Structures are given as structure tokens and as C-alpha cells.
Amino acid sequence: MLTTHQAAQLLGVSDRRVQALIQDGAIAAQKVSGVWIISEESIKERIASVSKKGGRPARGRGKSETEFTLMNRGHEIVQVIYDSRRKEFTYINPEIDKTHSPIGLFDNAGNMLADFNSWWRGRGIPQTRHRLDALLEEAGADLPQELIQRNLGLSLSDQYWIRPNSSTLAWDDVNFFNNDFNLVSLITEEYTADGKTAVAKPDNTSDGNLEKRWVCRNGKRLLLKGGTQYGQEPYNEVVATALHRRLLTNGCFVPYKLEGEGATALSSCANFLTDEEEFVPALYVERHLERDTRLNDYEHYLACCEALGAHAAASSLDCMIVCDDIIANHDRHHRNFGLIRNVESLECRPAPIFDSGSSLWCDVPTSQLAAGEHSFESKQFYASPAKQMLLVQDMTWLDARKLDGFVEEALSILAKNEALTARLPFIKASLEWRVSRMINIAEWN
After folding, report:
1. Does the first or last residue of the chain, that is N or C, have fewer Cβ atoms within 10 Å of its Cβ?
2. Cα end-to-end distance, the chain, whole Å
3. Count of domains observed in the chain
């Protein structure tokens, strides 16, 4: 038996959605001492009815259901049905183009490796987005997945979208990589499943917790991101860029710039994908192969990368782990590193390092910054930075001389935000400690 929260995690929905499913009789549950206890078998049946082979609900098509084709650029992947009342896909056809399907979503036999609705929602705004309520209210939406649907799933992170079966829309007509965002809105709004005409824009399919928006400038697509309480995250991105430029070669990292000043400044970076490339998060890369219990998470991830032809993954991870360790990046989760796949040639390579704003203890209140406490919790493969550093296979690329003056450069960047003034002594001492530690590790290797 499962709790409401456990059932929600398995289904990839909110606790409130599970309660609604109970009320509708869609899943079996009983109340014990005022708490819903849910049948695990009922949850398995629910997942199967929504996303497995031949899983169309027995009640058939309803007025709220619309037929779409999941596309990868111009490639037809699979026929699906979306229910605008339930705000989820209720049918995935078993006939699948496995060649162009999302990595980690289907296996070679066409079986689902992950819940389709969870994958779809993962391409949009997360429930943890800063000021999400205000964003949804402005858009006239109840849930983030409504915004994905109004975009027809179009994104600047990959080439997946849903083409209404009643339309003749083509990738060249609607993609955000080559078309003006406003033009895409005019084309797509009549096909949205919920009948709402909110603007379609790549902001609706952007992952991450910080407020962000895409803009077109001189033919480039730029991502602008804000900060939270102290406005430190945009400055951290520029500090990370300074570090990456010292240690890494161009193309191994995404460079960020500052726009604006003070606590309201934004960071900006250009899209690192072409209109033929998709970003595949590590979360899905690691589902490419069946797990060998003899391998740890890191080894399994590398095995998946090798199987996909991304042979430089180990050296790329070395650089990411080392750089994240120096700036104490506490949010390198499995959605913000991974691979880039060309969806036409199917060739894969490691993605450049991006999204380093959640670092330098930006989430710790100034009053709680403690002298002598320089550590943090990491997220890639181990929570312990020390244990994670043991995964690094090669450090010959790290020239310690290139770190001379880095702490001073970092502080000069952060000092542009007066809201960070009281935090700078701690950051200075901690960065000095972490840089010194990294140089010692490199010398030992």
C-alpha cells in the first residue's frame, strides 16, 4: 500500500492530482485514520493505461481528447492522444519510430522506460520555479504543463513537438530556432488543445528553478536568468565563466554575461544548440542501458555514454566535477548536464558546462555563513564533494598557475552587487580554501 505522496511520485503528478484521481475512482484507495492508503496494484494499472503499449483507457475517445503526432523535427515518432480536461496524455500508440525517439523514453522494442507524461512535464517549467504562482496567473494557467501544451511542446532545448493530426504544420513553420517567437504564436494558437490563446514562447518549455526568459537579438537566441534573495546567481554564472575560461578550452563551457546591475541584474547566454541538436539530460542518458548492478552510478552513466558514441564523456565529467568543486556548485542535478545529440546523424557528444549559478553558498542566509565552514553538498553522483573528486580520472589538464588571481577576479565580479557586500569576506576565505585544496589534489595526482 502507498501514501498519496508515494503514489504521486510514481505517477509523476502532484499530491493534489492523486487525490482527484481517488475522488474520480480512477485509482483504488481507502481512508485509514483520516489518511488515504492507495493500492500499489492500482497505481501500476494506472501507469499502464496511460503510457504502456496498447494502453488507451477503455472508455475511448472523449470530447476533451485531441489526436497528435509526437514529432522530432520532421520525423513522426508516435501517435498520441491528449486529454485537455485531465491535462495529460491518455494514449501512446505502440507503433514507434525508435530511431528518432527520445533517448531513455523507449527501449529498442518500443516499450516505455519512463512515464510519458512525466517526460513531457520535465520539458517544461518545474513546480519549484521561483514565483511560479505569479507566472501561471499572468498566463491564465493552472499548471505548468498547460503552457507546454500551448507551445505544442516546442522548445529551444530539443526538437520534439506535437503536431495536431488535423493540421499540416511543418517544423520549418513553427520551430523557435529559426522563427520569430511572435510568428510561432500566431501559427500555433488555433491548435492548442485547451482552446486558450496564451502566447507560445520558449519560456514555457524552460527547465530550472530561477526566473528566466528567451529573447531574439541579432539572429541569436539568448537566455536571460534572474536571481533569488540576494541576486547572487547571475553573478555566480559570470564567476564560473571566468573560471572556465582560465582552465578549459572554448566549446567546453557556455559563457555568461551580466545584464543590468545590482541585485536585479540578469545573466545572459546564447543557446548552445543548433536546430538539429537536442540536449539529452543525464537523467535520460542513464536509462539507455539496463543497469549492471556491478557498476556504480558514475560507471553506469559512462557506459551509457559509450554506447551512445559519446567517447569523451569521462574527460568532460572530470572538468565539470573539478570546476563545480572549486565554486561549490550545489545544484548540478541530472537535468543540467548530459549529452548533445544531432537528431539527423544521431551522433552524440558531451554537452558543455552550463547553469552554474547555484554556487558560492548563494542559498545560505548571510547570518548563517560560518567562518571555517567551506564545504557543500554536491548532486552529480555523490553528495560528498570529497568522494566525488575520487571519480576524476585525469587532472593533467589543470594548470595550477592559471588559478593565480582567480579569487580576486571572482570578488571583483561579486562586488558589483552591493547586496553581497556582507557575504564577500566569507566567500573570499572559502574560495581561497577550495582553490588551495584543488591545487593540492592536482599535485597529488
Report:
1. C
2. 50
3. 3
Report the mean per-residue pLDDT for the chain.
88
Q: Give the type of residue at 422.
A: A
Share of the chain above pLDDT 90, in %: 60
Residues 76 and 25 in one domain: no
Rounded Cα distance between 247 and 261, Å, is: 27
414: helix, strand or coil: helix
pLDDT (tens digit per residue) in 331-350: 999 999 999 999 999 999 99
Question: Which secondary structure element, helix H or strand E, spans residue 303, and what is its range?
Answer: helix 297-307
> Do residues 231 and 419 touch, judged by C-beta distance below 8 A?
yes
User: What are the pLDDT digits (tens) for 16-44?
Assistant: 677 777 876 678 887 776 678 888 777 87
220-225/35-38 β-pairing = unpaired
Residue with cell 501512446: 92
d(CA 281, CA 336): 6
Q: Helix, strand or coil for residue 38? A: strand
- Alpha-carbon distance 47 to 117, whole Å? 10
Q: How far apart are CA 292 and CA 310, in angstroms?
A: 19
Task: Give burial (CB, 10 Å; 0-12/13-18/19+) of 333.
Answer: middle
Q: Which of 306, 303, 424, 410 is nearest to 366 (CA)?
A: 424
Grid cell at residue 235: 553573478
Report in angstroms the alpha-carbon separations of 430 from 238, 371, 421, 426. 18, 8, 15, 6
- Do 309 and 325 touch, CB atoms closer than 8 A? no
- For the stretch 24-56, what's the b/e string if a residue is b when 16 or more beta carbons lie within 10 angstroms of its beta carbon? eebbebeeeeeebebbeebbebbbebbbbeebb
- Measured CA to CA, the distance from residue 297 to residue 222 in angstroms comes to 33
How far apart CA 211 and CA 131 sit, in angstroms, is 7
Determine the structural domain holding residue 425 and report its residue range: 247-444
29 found inside a domain: yes
Cα separation, 398 vs 318, whole angstroms: 10
Secondary structure element (H or E) that encloses residue 315, with its range:
helix 313-326
Task: Judge if 11 and 139 occupy the same domain.
Answer: no
Question: Which residues pair with residue 253 across a beta bridge?
Answer: 353
